[in-house]
Design a protein that fits this description.
2 copies of one chain form a homodimer. The first copy, chain A, contains 15 helices and 11 strands. Chain A has helices at about 10-20, 25-40, 50-60, 105-110, 145-155, 170-175, 210-220, 250-265, 285-300, 300-305, 315-325, 330-340, 345-350, 375-380, 410-425, and strands at about 45, 70-75, 115-120, 160-165, 180-185, 205-210, 240, 270-275, 355-360, 385-395, 400-405. Chain A is α/β, with parallel strands linked by helices. Chain A is globular, with a radius of gyration of 20 Å. The longest helix of chain A is centred in the N-terminal third of the chain and has 19 residues, at about 25-40. Chain A has a domain at about 5-220: Amidase signature (AS) domain (Amidase signature (AS) enzymes), CATH 3.90.1300.10. The interface of A and B includes residues 100, 101, 188, 327 and 332 of A.
Chain lengths: ~425, ~425
Amino acid sequence: MKLHNELTATEALSEMDAGTLTAERLLRACFDRIDAREDVVGAFIHLDRDSALEMARRIDQSGRKGPMGGIPFAVKDIIDTHDMPTAYGSRIYAGHQPAADASCVALTRAAGGILVGKAVSTEFANFFPGKTANPIDPARTPGGSSSGSAAAVADCMVPLSLGTQTTQSTIRPAAFCGIYAYLPSQGDFRCSGVREAAGSFDRLGPMARSIEDLMLFRDVLLRIKPRPAGPVEDKAPKIGFCRTTLWDQMEPCMRAVMEEAVARLERAGAQITDITLPASFDGFSEAHRKVSSFEFVRNFAHEITHHWDEISEALRNGRIRHGLETDFEEYRAARRYLAQSRALIPEIFADVDVLITASAMGEAPLGLHATGSAAIGEIFTPLYLPCVSIPCGVGPNGMPLGLQVLAAADDDARLLAVSRWVDRHLN
Amino acid sequence: MKLHNELTATEALSEMDAGTLTAERLLRACFDRIDAREDVVGAFIHLDRDSALEMARRIDQSGRKGPMGGIPFAVKDIIDTHDMPTAYGSRIYAGHQPAADASCVALTRAAGGILVGKAVSTEFANFFPGKTANPIDPARTPGGSSSGSAAAVADCMVPLSLGTQTTQSTIRPAAFCGIYAYLPSQGDFRCSGVREAAGSFDRLGPMARSIEDLMLFRDVLLRIKPRPAGPVEDKAPKIGFCRTTLWDQMEPCMRAVMEEAVARLERAGAQITDITLPASFDGFSEAHRKVSSFEFVRNFAHEITHHWDEISEALRNGRIRHGLETDFEEYRAARRYLAQSRALIPEIFADVDVLITASAMGEAPLGLHATGSAAIGEIFTPLYLPCVSIPCGVGPNGMPLGLQVLAAADDDARLLAVSRWVDRHLN
């Protein structure tokens, strides 16, 4: 029997509908968990218990309102909130109070979601980490940059959270912490009120402990009427297994888990095809770095001018230096190359419903000084494809591993349906 | 002999280089003009004379620093500034003080630009107008949504300003006020810190009184080393003359001025080809409205939830109602249709260097209750092409008219070079 804070959002909504759970009890269970664990996990930069409780009571009194009525959620601290400070993971903005909720926060609240706090982000959603530890093994990174968002959901502090991804900032922490995450087709979710890192790649990524919850969250963020997920489809999908050029660099456990997962899905009826990405994609990593660094440096012109000393050395000598060294023609050539590459995507999906590939290079590494390799993101993020990360096995250190399912652009509905099928046969 | 405030930025920089002008004298001339005319024009929602003067003196004392050192500029009030309030054209945010400069402001200031104030925007860069009048005839609209940005430059209050465009919000006011404006290839300028209306279309648009100034401003916003514009090319371009399906609805003066301009350019050596956009583009207007309205409603979820009564009826019954009525599948189909249409662009430019078309339907209409038709923007903005608006003749009421020059995506350098050639032969 699950504790209330361990329920998924969908389960909690059912219980609330059935009258066996109130928003206040659910929220108190979440805060009990936070009280018990936050010292170790460090998922939050800010919590607001009182106003969350007031909101929960109001929902209980008025009857549940909205498709997410009474569901606690957290958002990455690069996302503006009108009633909680937003520091963008930087000491420059400690205590900064925005005037409005970001679009995604306002939409989730309008659907009845209860914001409990701001989850730790790395500095400006880049690589310099915050305080968060991996809840499975606090000696290890939760991944980044959506560190707190992943840890809070994984540790059952909240059922839902929002992260963002510019390289591998949602999928990687979800995999490292053993939870589910979703990125929509590029452009589907509005990022207004979310601090831009590199607009060409930035995406909001919901995190949860089930795919049904991701589907619900998606509908809320699109402001469309959520439909019940219904039963998992019986029909086995056609799956392209994409090892990528990084295969040999992955940890052996990651390769083993992927091979085993593919074998299991095949036994369950999936038609598996090995997919090799076009050789012309080999420059993605460099192109992604050029585009993201060029844009990052322009986006942070204010901080570079006024707050240079308060920016971490890691960021100054990394992304910023690289962005200053990238000239406009290189940037534009990289952007054009990626756009032209995306034109080849329909071919990749000609004979398969989805691709599957690893969500990260292996287990969450030891230490909180870094957030692990984002290399896989440099390949897939520029493709603008919708994707889901699914927990898949454990490594030799007992840490969760994850696989990604990706579908063609605008094929989010199929992606989510197939992901549920994959999840049922793996977990 | 021009007054100092009448100089273009490029001219003023030459004079400052030659030692015949100081930043302080230039700025004082601009403020003298503002003092004399602001009551009539109403270009600004906020001015900051003291800190601008302090900055000018500092630049004079230290020697001119940066490629725009000592040049006064204004920005549309949907653009964040760390030291001036930013109201997004809405009474909801009267007096609101952002924590940081938007990327574009920080980049311009880092280049030595002196921000003198925030220029009036329509409400959230939509259609409900602010107080600004057309400086040529204060009984007429300056156009919108970048109303104050256009009026301030046209009235020689500042040499440079920044507007934004989601439909026709930069090109139209530039034409109505008789100045030059430029929109880059979609995605070139970072919009971080600029309040998003509809991210699929939003672009920053510099405004000025010469094309050389637009080129300088572009380099500053891209954070690349500005190069001197050099002489206007002698070689006559190949020009596609695009009347559009709106031709018969344009005011007769607009059609006459366009025909005359084309005849004059042809006499100057340009090779003119009539270009008809593909019939498949006929749905652009509807598609633009669906995409922009869908995105607008999600972006303004916070204001819709918390400040409904403070939103104008025009916006509630216009863009917002339309956005609420547009469902996600319609939105996505419209977005896909526009993307597929953009794939036809190379064909359009197969035999021409640029397109020219009207910047607006005619003269700035009488009255300050509306900002004029944006219909032309619904055709060209979704194409993501770089473009320049050039003053071109006057109508029967003595109001300026404008024509647009458009080039293929990423062909901004050619666009600007050809625009200078066109300008030399028209003005």
